[in-house]
């Protein structure tokens, strides 16, 4: 099993015929993802040839759903059109929308995440690397060849740190890795993923990657304390970030004592989470929790 994305998932790509859409559709297909179509009203009826298969282009998400049974969409459209794209997907009955686009205005993100919720559509992102269930399906831009299938669940604000921890723990492997995005407003939270991993019988341990800004990690810590029985290992990025400056993601800003890396670490450790000081140390904590210390070395 896995969370959110499996080998049975049928994926549409909104913006498939653009440069980024084409590049990553090819990579998704190579990873075994069942990409059943693209969406571009101006190129409807065409077929795009990839190495693995020919993929049809539909004029709307609804047409794509009706013709293929798609239940997932990956959104590569420009920021100005992202809100309309997500609303269209939600209206078409898509269950999971992975919004890769960065630079979306916050008020648009607020609007489309709220609307999608009313339609039963889960949003991953925006400004995220996507979701991968290794060996089954890959919806987004996560490199599929840096890890293997296993029993670790991963939820992360940071795309780069998602990739690094996947690589660090490649010998153990992952059930599903979810990059939730680092914008101030995201459709799926750490807590949402923790709940899903808790219920997934094939996930033995969860890695949670956070960063400065907001209180998502503190809320996740409270949820772990009250509801999660599986071991959780954490890493928080941003200990050296200066106060009041946005660092990388739009949501990564510290104001006074709110949203600091230390506050997040303290909250997680109080909930029983082992928190690494570096990605490598985080990987060693995971190995220790799973009885794999010999491969990764002792935690210092």
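-> sequence recovered:
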């Amino acid at each position: 099993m896995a969370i959110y994305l499996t080998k049975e998932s049928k994926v549409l790509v909104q913006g498939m015929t653009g440069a980024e859409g084409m590049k990553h559709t090819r990579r998704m297909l190579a990873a075994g993802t069942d990409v059943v179509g693209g969406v571009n009203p101006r190129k409807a009826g065409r077929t795009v040839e990839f190495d693995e298969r020919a993929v049809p282009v539909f004029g709307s998400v609804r047409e794509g759903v009706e013709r293929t049974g798609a239940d997932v969409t990956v959104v590569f459209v420009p920021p100005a059109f992202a809100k309309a794209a997500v609303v269209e997907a939600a209206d078409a009955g898509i269950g999971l929308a992975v919004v890769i686009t960065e630079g979306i205005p916050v008020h648009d993100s607020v609007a489309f995440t709220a609307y999608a919720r009313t339609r039963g559509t889960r949003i991953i992102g925006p400004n995220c690397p996507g979701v991968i269930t290794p060996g089954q399906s890959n919806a987004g831009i996560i490199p599929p060849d840096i890890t293997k299938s296993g029993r670790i669940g991963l939820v992360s604000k940071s795309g780069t740190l998602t990739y690094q921890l996947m690589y660090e723990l490649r010998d153990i492997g992952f059930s599903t890795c979810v990059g939730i995005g680092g914008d101030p407003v995201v459709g799926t939270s750490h807590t949402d993923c923790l709940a899903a991993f808790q219920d997934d019988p094939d996930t033995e341990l969860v890695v949670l990657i956070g960063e400065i800004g907001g209180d998502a990690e503190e809320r996740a810590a409270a949820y772990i304390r009250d509801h999660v029985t599986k071991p959780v290992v954490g890493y928080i990025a941003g200990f050296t970030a200066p106060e009041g400056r946005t660092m990388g993601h739009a949501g990564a800003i510290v104001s006074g004592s709110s949203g600091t890396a230390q506050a997040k670490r303290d909250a997680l450790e109080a909930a029983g989470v082992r928190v690494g000081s570096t990605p490598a140390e985080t990987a060693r904590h995971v190995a220790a929790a799973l009885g794999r210390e010999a491969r990764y070395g002792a935690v210092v």
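The chain has two domains: 10-124, 146-292.
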